Amino acid sequence: MSSVQVVPLFSATSLKADYKIAKAALLERFRTAGNVDTLMRSLARLTDTALRGAWDACGLPPTLTLLAVGGYGRGELAPFSDIDILVLLPDGPNPQLETRLERFIGLAWDLGLELGSSVRTVEQCLEEAANDITVRTSLLEARRIVGSTSLFEGFAVHYREALDPRAFFQAKVLEMRQRHAKFQDTPYSLEPNIKESPGGLRDLQLILWVTQAAGFGSSWRELDARGLITEREARGLRRNESFLKTLRARLHVIAGRRQDILVFDLQIAVAESFGHKATDAKRASEHLMRRYYWAAKAVTQLATILIQNIEAQLFPDTSGITRVLSDHFVEKQGMLEIAGDDVFEREPHAILEAFLLYEKIRGVKGLSARTLRALYNARDTMDRHWRRDPENRRMFMEILQQPEGITHALRLMNQTSVLGRYLLNFRRIVGQMQHDLYHVYTVDQHILMVLRNLRRFAVAEHAHEYPFCSQLIANFERPWVLYVAALFHDIAKGRGGDHSKLGMADARRFCREHGIEADDTALVVWLVEHHLTMSQFAQKQDTSDPEVIKRFAELVHSERRLTALYLLTVADIRGTSPKVWNTWKGKLLEDLYRTTLNVLGGAQPDAHSELKSRQEEALALLRLETVPEHAHSALWDQLDVGYFLRHDAADIAWQTRVLHRHVNTPTPIVRARPWPIGEALQVLVYVQDRPDLFAGICAYFDRNGLSVLDARVSTTKHGYALDNFLVAHTERDVHYRDIANLVEQELAARLTADGTLLPEPSKGRLSRLSRTFPVTPRVDLRADERGQYYILSVSANDRPGLLYSIARVLAEHRVGVHAARINTLGERVEDVFLLDGRGLSDNRLQIQVETELLRAIAV
Q1: What class, spelled out in words, does domain 9-163 have in CATH?
Q2: SS3 for 723?
Q3: Which of 423, 499, 673, 815 has the fewest CB atoms within 10 Å around its CB?
């Protein structure tokens, strides 16, 4: 091995300084309206120069070759991307060479290069590539930086000979599907990964990898020349690729590190770097994200077309016609294909016919590339006349009224932009973000998720998920009315004003234009107007109060309206975020539904009859548990009517069984059990009352990672607190049976100990999402209609310790809590408390309490 003069160490120091200065200059030029392709190529060339310098400084022999692989091999580098290199050896290294290679890699790191390095012979490369699709992909774009040209050329020949384009295509498509599944198969994440998410840069890279492997070309221009895409599609791909690359580069520069996830914290800064400005209606970030979603959607559409076309050329024997479906469509290997390229221009009705056939024909799993391309090119056809065509209106209603496939069809219509072209106001909410810390989907995806939830109620295979909903929808006449309401319930989001009121006008116009009968039109419009009402009644009002039920019954007016609103409400809450729905909310809604149904059926909401009914049912349950006949009297004689109205019969029986022997006990009693109908822990506390009791219990739950879902507080006639809490652990995999005994012992010990129950409040840290999109804290304290209680409503960002902070303020002013509804909506809380009215009639005290509460819940 020939010796090479080693460059002195000070040259390496100079190399590092030169690299740092040159890179900073490139990034600064890019910040001031530079071109992303120029930046990425310049960064690659700069890195080549630095690596050559390090290679020479370490005296590596000329028989070796240094290769750039992966994205760096393409001659492109994002500002803080990993730099993947391969040192290619003619044969195995000796100890002296290993030492020099280690020094080279260490020096490269010292220069500030984030290396991903490997050292292999040609044979080792081929072996690794055969076993690992990731290695096979990275070597596809290998590029020589320095060293032996002949070694590199020999490697390239052997690699090409070993590469099977068909197997490579299949492996990459499978890899893409697995990657998409990690992102729920949607490009509409509120914090998308610009590189890896569906519709991101990786999808574009994958296409060029498989076409390069097959010899079809390595650029959009070459794919256009080969006929795999049209010139218009090539322009769309170049435009969206450039936007995604620019977005990623700006994200790197602003973060000052490799950052491919467009997190909330950085969205505004990135948006402003593009020149977006905040308006009264929208944040700057919303303008940026809508642009991103439209780009990702276009990439998804065009990538689907290209992948199908590539597959047809790689596997020509499997692309024949399977059957003729209509004058306009045939089936090819499970895909719906147009019978001629000009079908949609000649027969615009065929656009919606495609989706109707997709629903109706079993075995059809998607639209072919030819059909997708024709839809992409038929956008100008979908104009005002097309929307107003009576046949198209009839066909759209038929799509909504099919027995199956509705969700898939509408999602596909949205992906291909047909839905937004047919419903122009739907087009306005495609890719629109919702910064309410509640929804985790864009508005269009939320609407389609709600529709999907309604459809699942009607599908027998999913009846086990929500059996009560499935039972109701099975007996609901014309369930498609619910689907229309779902389409329009949030369609007016982002316009300013009350979206429920604005959406009513859209829904009414749609029903009129589509010939929907007056009764069904009235129901659709009413559902859009009131789609939030049932959850507000269930979660924010005292539904044990007969007057509340009476008001709700008067509002819904009929059983059909009640059932429709209940089904839409459950589907809506389920379609906001996986975190928002829980069994407790489900029970609140179902209890409200059943109670209201009784009133609509003629039963009078009478507190006395309800009291008697619950007591009789509770006594029946106690007999089953062999509790002595009159044992309940000692406890029940100390309880008021409100207690019995706020608890159901099963809870009354459980609490009576626990307490009937301990009515006058001086010792605190705490009992806990897994909630019989859901994932939560039910905790009973019975102890002599004191002003700080509720706050102290909340402090214990907070310190132990237990989130209060519901609290029902009663005070007996002889001065005992009988409190019932429903709590859930912040860790979802907790077994509540395992922690029940611990809660009983610890909480009882805390209540027994002398001294205050109120530790100093510590404001828990807000989540990253809450810090980025803070909720303006709000406190509303007002007397109820009868002046017996005060209702406290609190809205704020959720954080550890929030409930205790509220309870402490109330305790310090000796304001008693009768009930609490703790309503957590993602990262936001909307809590409602029923307070003892004594003392709060003093305006000065009321203002002081409100002021201190605002201070306590502020971030």
Answers
A1: alpha beta
A2: strand
A3: 673
